[in-house]
Design goal:
Strand order of the largest sheet: 1-2-10-7-8
Shape: elongated
Structural class: alpha+beta
Largest sheet: 5 strands, antiparallel
Radius of gyration: 24 Å
């Protein structure tokens, strides 16, 4: 996680936060105009750039944020921009602004911020953008741009209930999902055991699932049939992680971990942190530690973090301190 060298054009990002570390001290010594444009960094499903420019020592600093054009629908973003003199507890915010529901359809629709303040005369500083909300604009009237591969045969079998031989009943609701035991058994070792010849539940054609909402259960079955899109998976990642753990669906577990990494923010970081250690998700652990320690966000949620430690399992607390405190 700790790095000895940062490229002058590289932006570090984790979850919904990105930090570009710059030397304002050297910039304050440049007498002429300059412009620095970052390398691309990914937040959610879009690639972003930050540019940092000034016409002269006496002119305001101009900061620009824009999204690369892609096959995805353009994003609508709410975010905060900050100029910090350092990262962590003693960091000073020199300038800050907030924008809500900004549409980024192309580079010409960039967000532009003029900062008329003296840059902090320090060697290591950063420009930080923290996304508060990201959603997809939808010019295609509901069409999705999911890149997931689907099995048209399995999808048709599920949608048209072709030769189904089992029914999933969703707790106390009236909703049922007609399924194929062979498909479920092939995707989940738990279902495979349930349907095995020597299982006492072998002849049970109704499967009661009472610990998932109808929406999550439908998403779980959709995943088993390769009938889920990216947005549905992202919307239910936390609940689907629990289902993947219970039914032994390893590939779903991995996809949920990736989604949970990508949308870390100050509202959900402690939930993500607990999930990372409770379910032993190594990549999510790294992302949570990077967000809290390397990006200095632990100081912004310190009271909540202490309250979290009081309620967390003892094993989880011990492991967190072992890994956070070298």
């Amino acid at each position: 996680m700790n790095r000895m060298f940062y490229s002058p054009f590289e932006v570090e990002s984790v979850g919904y936060v990105a930090q570009w570390r710059l030397s304002f001290k050297s910039m304050n010594m440049i007498p002429h105009s300059f412009i620095h444009t970052s390398e691309a960094f990914k937040i959610s499903k879009w690639n972003w750039h930050i540019s940092f420019s000034r016409d002269s020592l006496s002119s305001p600093v101009a900061i620009k944020l824009y999204a690369e054009e892609s096959t995805n629908n353009p994003p609508i973003a709410s975010f905060k921009f900050r100029i910090l003199d350092s990262i962590g507890k003693n960091g000073i915010t020199f300038a800050e602004t907030e924008e809500k529901d900004k549409l980024f359809s192309s580079e010409t629709d960039a967000f532009n911020w003029e900062v008329d303040v003296q840059l902090p005369d320090v060697t290591t500083s950063c420009v930080e953008v923290e996304f508060l909300d990201l959603k997809t604009s939808n010019p295609n009237d509901g069409e999705t741009n999911s890149t997931r591969k689907r099995s048209t045969t399995l999808v048709r079998m599920l949608r048209e209930s072709i030769h189904t031989d089992a029914t999933i009943k969703l707790g106390s609701s009236d909703k049922i999902i007609r399924v194929h035991r062979a498909v479920l058994a092939a995707r989940s070792p738990i279902f495979e055991y349930m349907f095995a010849e020597d299982s006492k539940e072998n002849n049970m054609l109704v499967i009661n699932i009472s610990d998932m909402s109808p929406e999550v259960c439908q998403a779980f079955i959709d995943y088993l049939y390769d009938n889920i899109d990216d947005e549905e998976l992202a919307d239910h990642s936390f609940e689907l992680l629990v289902a993947a753990e219970k039914y032994g669906v390893i590939d779903l577990r991995e996809e949920c971990e990736k989604n949970l990494q990508e949308d870390i923010n100050r509202k959900n970081i402690l939930e993500r942190l607990h999930a990372a250690y409770f379910y032993q998700l190594p990549y999510l652990k790294i992302s949570c530690a990077q967000y809290l320690v390397e990006f200095g966000k632990i100081h912004e949620i310190w009271d909540d973090f202490l309250a979290f430690l009081k309620l967390a399992d003892d094993d989880v607390i011990c492991e967190i301190f072992r890994e956070f405190l070298p």
